[in-house]
Each structure stands twice: as structure tokens, then as C-alpha cells.
Amino acid sequence: MMITQDFTKPIDSATVLQKIVLDKAQWVQAKEKELPLSQFKEKIQKSDRSFYAALAKGTHQKPAYILECKKASPSKGLIRAEFNLEDIANVYKHYASAVSVLTDEKYFQGNFEFLPLVRNIVSQPVLCKDFMISEYQVYLARYYQADAILLMLSVVNDETYRVLADLAHSLGMGVLTETSNEEEFERALALGAKIIGVNNRNLHDLTVDLNRVVELTEKYADHIPADVRIISESGIYNHKQIRQLQKVAHGFLIGSSLMGNQDLNNAVRSVILGENKVCGLTRAQDVKIVYENGAVYGGLIFAEHSKRCVSLRQAQELVTAAPLRFVGVFQNQEIDFIVKIANQLQLYAVQLHGAENEAFITALRQQLPKNTQVWKAISINTEAQSAVNFTDDLNVDRYIFDSQTENQQGGTGKTFDWSLIPENLKHKIILAGGISPNNVEQAIQQNCLGLDLNSGVESAAGVKDQEKVRLVFEKIFNSF
């Protein structure tokens, strides 16, 4: 079957997508002259990495992740100036089900030569992300070692789709079939697509609506075969969104939010696993252990009465042990002292665990470096039965909901009634208080932004238990 669809016809008042496709047709014509298919077709070997098998492992309970290498985009312009594929791939290989590589040159600053660079580092299948309109591109993708291609139903008609998908399958490659509306979703089902992506971004005006994947999957729920996997694409920036959408999606394609973060490893951990913190760190070996197991934040306590209090000199040694985002924990201490510690340790955040009021927080915020966050602990009595009553402070980036007993705030080893957590603030709440390997799965189900672990992963105050840390993060990872 030959492709008869014409991609070269000029369009008046073309949308962003239409302009891209017109330019892609010209690119293909030029590339075929530069590198004729006859020069490399016989060198192509079938893929030995199954994209379908990798994505089939994705479930609503434990989604699959396609993590993307993307330097720029039409909607955001330059996203990652220091685009080091080796560094990116060495992070992604620990978390991805598959790795997506942008190869479009004009709009995404991609290149087909990126594909083998990434594939040589990761063991997962590699997806060639481009605007596929010709058989030549499919051959080219496999020649450059891609294990799968993207086919956009907003770009190709059914005839073209079948030709390109059949060719990809003959080369051992999988196909991610992208849809963005009801008509395209129906077509994907009719075409027998195995992996259906729902792009939450409108490619004609570049707006994003995360409800799109919800609406489409719910409307066609009775028509989606059990072995078909739904991938939510675009607009994923935090773990809360993953938790909300995994009810309808089996996996997620995430690119811009990761590429825009210079701290890529912790950015991936935050989105996939949640913003999890281990507090009360006092030993360098514990810092290394919690980082290696998946923590994003490390808590250093400077509250003088705490059994886990560290000195500035101790803290300076701890922050060099592993690249955690370090959070300094303070309680009713002077602003000058907090700012001094934050500056000397280059803290990611300061956490206030006392009676600090709105005026104090405002004054502190003005003296801290602009990129240092302010977190506030909300202590809830373990015997409390009524709803938590407080006003959200815009100067507070995160709230830590922690347990309180008559004699102690934080590090109590006890839980409070989690039903008291305000639903409308879970997107900025990290749950603390008595979380251990025994109850971490229940804690995850509270759908907060992340978890804060302390005494529940210790063998003694300030001494983290390696096996408890490993077990709790294993359970966190297996939940997503």
C-alpha cells in the first residue's frame, strides 16, 4: 500500500501543527536527497527491545513512565540550555519504562543522532518522537536504533497510519498512537492501536487540559480492550497529578517539566515517587542511604531540644554526602540564625516547627534567598478528633502535617487521624508522624504531595536503619 496523503499543500492561516507538518514534508524531501534510503536500508536490523512489552507492564496501580529528552518546544522555546544526553540518560535509566527522544530539528532542536547516544546508555526501548509522515522516516528511525515511533492521528489519516505502523512492526518497532479528541480516539481503537497516547495539549493552539485524558477514557471505557494501554501525555508537573490521573491512565509521558529542572534526578523522583523526605539525619552514611533509596529531601534539625539536633559543623559535612535537597528544621529561633544557616548550607528550604506566625514568616521570607522555600509544620494532637483549622499562607511553599503528643512535637513515632487532613491543600502537604514500613502504603493512599519519614525508619534516635529505609522506599516505589 502506498501513501497518498498530501502533506505539502500550503494552508491559509495555518495552525502551529499545520506549519510543523508543512516544514516536515520539506525536511523529508531534503533528507532523502542528502541520505537516500538505498544507502542504509540493507544495514537496518530489527529491534530487540519490545516497546509493547515494556509499556504492557503499566497498570493503574503502578504506571509506566516514558521519560523524554527534549531541548526545546514551540510552546516553551528553549527548555534545557545544557542539553547533555549522557547525563539525562544516566538519570532516566533508573526510572523509565521507555525513553522518548525528540528528533525534530526545527521546532524541538532534536536530531536523529540523539537516538543511538541514548540507547547505548539505557536498557529500555527508545521512542523516536517526531512528526512521522513518510516510510522514509520510519526506516531512518530504525537505522538510528529507535525501538518505537510516534504516529499522530492529528497528522496522518487511517491509510497513512496503517502503512507506517505496518512498516514499524516489520522492523520490530512499536507504535505510540497519539490522540487528542474523540474522533481520533475512536480511530485509534478502530485501527487496533496497542498503546494509545492522549495528548492533553491542543497542538493547534498549544493550550493544556488534563481533563482530556479523563473525559476520553471514561467515555470509551467499555470499548477499550483490556490489553490496550492508555498513556497520558503533556502537562504533568507533579506527583499529585500522577495520583489523580493514574485512575484512568496506565502510564505517563513526561518531558518539559523534567527538562526544565536542572536538578533532574530529584525532579524525576519528585514526580514519580512524590516529594519524600527523611528527617533527623545525623550521619553521613544515612544521608547516602536515604538518597540511594529514593528520597528527595533530607531534614537537618537545628531545634536545640531535639534528640536529633545537629551543629553547623556537622551539617556542613552532611550536605556533602549526597545531593539531596536539604531542609533545615527550626523551632522558635531567631530570624538571623535561620538565615545564617540557610545561607551557609545553601538550604533548599527552611522548615518552621514552632509558634512562628504570619508576620514572622513574612519577615523571614524577605531575608532568605529568593530560591529558598519556606515550609511550616502543622502539629496535630494524636488524640485530636476535629478538623484542622488554619489559613493557608501564600508565603508558605509546603506544609508538614505532623503528630504532636503532650510532651513532644515531631519525631513522636505516632500517627494522627489522617482523615483530618484538608483535602483542598493536599497538593502542598507532606505527611509526617509515625510513618514506617508497617503503614507507609496507607500513608501513600492519603494522596498528599509526599511523605516525611523519621523515627519510623530508625533503630535509635538519629540513627537510620538501613533495612527499614530500603523497605519503606521499596513499598513507595511499588505503589507507583
Describe the structure.
It catalyses: N-(5-phospho-beta-D-ribosyl)anthranilate = 1-(2-carboxyphenylamino)-1-deoxy-D-ribulose 5-phosphate; 1-(2-carboxyphenylamino)-1-deoxy-D-ribulose 5-phosphate + H(+) = (1S,2R)-1-C-(indol-3-yl)glycerol 3-phosphate + CO2 + H2O. Keywords: Amino-acid biosynthesis, Aromatic amino acid biosynthesis, Decarboxylase, Isomerase, Lyase, Multifunctional enzyme, Tryptophan biosynthesis. The protein is built from 17 helices and 20 strands. The chain is of the alpha/beta class. It folds into two domains: 253 residues, TIM Barrel (Alpha-Beta Barrel), CATH 3.20.20.70; 205 residues, Alpha-Beta Barrel (TIM Barrel), CATH 3.20.20.70. An eight-stranded parallel beta barrel has the order 1-4-5-6-7-8-9-10, surrounded by five helices. It has an eight-stranded parallel barrel with strand order 11-12-13-14-15-16-17-18. The protein has a two-stranded antiparallel sheet with strand order 2-3. The longest helix is centred in the first third of the chain and has 19 residues.
Short note summarizing the structure:
This protein is α/β, with parallel strands linked by helices and 480 residues long. 32% of the residues lie in helices and 19% in strands.
Structure characteristics:
single chain; 480 residues; alpha/beta; TIM Barrel; elongated; phosphoribosylanthranilate isomerase activity
Write the layout of secondary structure elements.
Elements: H1 16-34, H2 51-56, E1 64-69, E2 72-73, E3 77-78, H3 85-92, E4 98-102, H4 114-119, E5 126-129, H5 135-143, E6 148-152, H6 158-170, E7 174-179, H7 182-190, E8 195-199, H8 211-219, E9 229-233, H9 239-245, E10 251-254, H10 256-259, H11 264-273, E11 277-278, H12 284-293, E12 297-301, H13 312-318, E13 325-330, H14 335-345, E14 349-352, H15 358-367, E15 373-381, E16 398-404, E17 429-431, H16 440-444, E18 450-453, E19 458-460, E20 463-464, H17 466-478
